[in-house]
Amino acid sequence: MKRYADTTAIVTGAAHGIGRAIARRLAAEGANVAVLDIDGDGADETARILRKDGNRAQAFRTDITDFPALEGTFAEIEANLGPVGLLVNNAAYTDAGALEGMGLDAWHREVDVNLNGTYHCLRAILPRMKERMDGAVVNIASVNGVRYFGNPSYSAAKAGIINLTQSVASEYGKYGIRCNAVLPGSVRTDNVTWTIRQQKDPDIFKKLGRWYALGRVAEPDDIAKAVSFLGSDDAGYITGVALPVDGGLLAGMNVMIGEFVLESDKE
Ligand SMILES: NC(=O)c1ccc[n+]([C@@H]2O[C@H](COP(=O)([O-])OP(=O)(O)OC[C@H]3O[C@@H](n4cnc5c(N)ncnc54)[C@H](O)[C@@H]3O)[C@@H](O)[C@H]2O)c1
Questions:
Q1: CB under 6 Å to ligand 1: residues?
Q2: Nearest CA owner, ligand 1 atom 23
Q3: What is the pLDDT of residue 259?
Q4: With a threshold of 0.85, does the pTM exceed it?
């Protein structure tokens, strides 16, 4: 039996990239998927792909920064697709590279979409899951939430998401609700940041591979597999964790170590 049979899952930001890969994987494992995104056309396209593969899916155009609209959407999702057993908070936005010179608007916007938006989704789903004494949440954070890799407002928001994950896990465990976070490193997607970087250097993903113990950046499905595990009963005793899915990026500094070796070669 498929591990998400009879489960309805919401995936936010599922119009593109990692969110679409998560939606596809959950659907392949039996879930009914609510594809939620501010980009209605992209969400429709994802839902079409899922249905073409023989799964049950529906697109919902919603802005996660708008709490009243989001609450209405979650009610509609449960009416159409059934009680939600899994929420994946994946929607995100960043285009502000450095702290110095950052506009105030950019700071507010990135904290609003990434942290407040995630909180809104939790606020909308937790009472529903509590009533049923069952549910799982997977928040997509980032390695940026634990180290500096640029994009400071986004990173501060991701650090907040990791902490929020612990709050939910601690407070809602008694209601049978689990909450975990996944921390991707670089993932090959065409989001705003990677598009700009790729325009500057078409080989960027290949070059970045040397920073990773596994020698490559992630593909979206690498992240989707981890999400699918953490959201399922196979992870039934796991809650409150922040799992790096980063090919070993946070484990060590291979490029720096390479420089030590060069120094010792000189002796
Ligand atoms: N790509 C990477 O290298 C990488 C690395 C670490 C973490 N992540 C995280 O993975 C997740 C997916 O990233 P991606 O690269 O697929 O990004 P993406 O930009 O392709 O997808 C994000 C989606 O969120 C949607 N979205 C943005 N604002 C929204 C809003 N207000 N309401 C509803 N939807 C909104 C966008 O329309 C988009 O479809 C994000 O949480 C991101 O922070 C990505």
A1: 12-13, 15-19, 37-39, 42, 63-65, 90-93, 113, 117, 140, 142, 184, 186-187, 189, 191
A2: 13
A3: 86
A4: yes
Q: Kindly indicate the confidence band of residue 265, based on its pLDDT and cuts at 50, 70 and 90.
A: low
Q: What is the C-alpha separation between 141 and 152, in angstroms, rounded?
A: 14
Per-domain residue ranges for the chain? 8-189+216-250
* Residues paired with 84 in a beta bridge: 8
Q: For 8-189+216-250, give the CATH class.
A: alpha beta
The mean pLDDT value for 82-106 works out to 95
CA of 91 to the centre of ligand 1 (A): 5
Cα(105)–Cα(102) distance, integer angstroms:
8
Asked if pLDDT for residue 263 goes beyond 80, the answer is no
CA of residue 254 to ligand 1 center, whole Å = 28
Distance 89 CA to ligand 1 centre (A): 10
How many angstroms separate the Cα of 60 from the Cα of each of 1, 26, 29, 157, 172? 28, 17, 21, 24, 27
Which of the following is catalytic: 158, 175, 237, 266? 158
Name the token pair of 173: 């465990």
Q: Collapsing DSSP states into helix, strand and coil, what is residue 85?
A: strand
Q: Would you state the pLDDT for residue 96?
A: 77
What pLDDT does residue 258 have? 87
pLDDT of residue 261 exceeding 80: no
* The pair of three-digit structure tokens given for residue 26, joined into one six-digit string: 């959950």
Nearest Cα neighbor of 163 from 198, 131, 129, 122 is: 122
Q: Around Cβ 252, how many Cβ atoms within 10 Å? A: 10
